[in-house]
Amino acid sequence: MCGRYASFLPPDLIARLFGTKNPLPNLKPTWNMAPTMDAPVVRRHPNSGERHLDLLTWGFVPAFTRDIKAARRPVNARAETAASSGMFRAAFAKRRCLVPAAAFYEWRADPGGKTPFAIARTDGEPMAFAGIWEGWRAPEGDILRSFAILTTHANVPMSALHERMPVILEPADWPVWLGETEGDPAALLKPSAEGILRVWAVDRRVGNVRNDGPELLEPVATLV
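The structure corresponding to this sequence follows.
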């Protein structure tokens, strides 16, 4: 799964890497992005076809939602069922997006409690999670735009921590995922290849959303 990640990349860097064209949003850097927060998301504009960088709320709200207070707001969608799920099907078909991240966190269940780990690309480049987004219109007319991150079964390094991991798309796959070129987006929903990611233990402070800052990504010693 993916329930926490680091999102401190400057907006101009994201725009340059992902080729977005709209005015840059005011991004607040965080090393502890959590559900319900607003996060940078790269989408294809339905009219111009250009890539846009926008702030969306993490926690998917389907367009058919009636009671927003009772909505589940899942932060993840399973890659195996997203295309057929009543909740995610429409968004998977028409509203796919990329979620930039510098790293993400996962917790390993140990006898003494859960141990957090950070995961990032070995080449130092930002990650792009496969995401889907939706717009929900409130009775007053306001529109809430939200997203979820697609997850798949874990690769070998990640399986030591958790059975699931976010789908991380390579740059060559971005045009297909965003619907810019022909291709099968479902075929992209697979674990990262071996050697793409590095994993290291971090301090348990990351488990509290009130804690933030680059120190959360500093490695700490832990038992294997």
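The two ends are 21 Å apart (CA to CA).
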